[in-house]
Amino acid sequence: MAPYSNRIKDDKFVFDGKSFVVDSNMIHGGARNNEFFTLQYTEQRVVLSYEHFPTKKGQYPFEYRLILVYELESDGFSVSLTLENISTHKIPIGLGFHPYLKKSLCPTGSETPLLQFSSQETYITDALIPVGYPIVTTNANDFSLGKELNFNIDNCFGKIDGDISVCWPKSKLCMKMSNCSNLDKLILFNELDSDCFAVEPSSSSVDAFNRYSQGYSDSGVAILSPFESGVINTRFTFSPM
After folding, report:
1. Residue 162 neighbours by CB under 8 Å, 6+ apart
2. For residue 139, what pLDDT is reported?
3. Among the residues of 35-144, which ranges form H helices?
């Protein structure tokens, strides 16, 4: 997810005293909707690149370059994402990953995945947009001991501590996400009538650009000077239950 993750309230934000409008379809920044070019391809490693130059209204209004690296490892794979500011002025960014996972891996029937992570904060939202500062995570939103994903949810959690794990009990498989320290937020999306769910580690909150301009210290927005870069990375490992 780049150069921002998740929703922007009313599809507009203010940065450096100027107002900008973004297309409502670019819910995760819009980078994924473009063609990436292959810089390197081996049996173990793929390096992809994309350069963004805004050409029409509704696009992210600043120039940047992305480098995306996938690398296979013995028990999984790692992913890193680098965004470089190639414009002539400062730009706001927020980065994230968007694993979209099958609820059931069992070929002979359905199963309910078990999700486990530790968060100190939970965002209160109105129409899926955070309102005020997050609150201390309560038992209702506590995933530290693991919870079955048998309910609807679309929310952001803050101050994520440690790994995120997903287990599929019938398939007897567990996946662990080990994220870099600046991926300290998590957007969790699940609909009961869907076959998939999303577990999205992010460096910034939902509606982060607006929260930054309003002075919220938890927005997670990074401000990059020209030729400065922001980097995130995660590692996926798999093991039997």
Report:
1. 117, 118
2. 87
3. none
- In this prediction, residue 30 has a pLDDT band, given cuts at 50, 70 and 90, of confident
DSSP per position, 16-48:
TTEEEEB-TT-TT-SGGGS--EEEEE-SSEEEE
Lowest mean pLDDT among 26-35, 42-51, 59-68: 26-35
**Residue 41, number of CB atoms within 10 A of its CB:** 9
Dihedral pair phi/psi, residue 12, rounded to 5°: -150, 150
| Domains (range + CATH), the chain | 9-240 (2.70.98.10)
What would the 3-class secondary structure string for 175-217 be?
Answer: EEEEECCCCCEEEEEECCCCCEEEEEEECCCCCHHHHHHCCCC
Kindly tell me if the per-residue pLDDT of 25 is higher than 90. no
Predicted TM-score of the model (pTM): 0.94
Four-residue CA torsion sign, 3, 228, 66, 87: positive
Write down the residue that tokens 């173990």 correspond to: 44
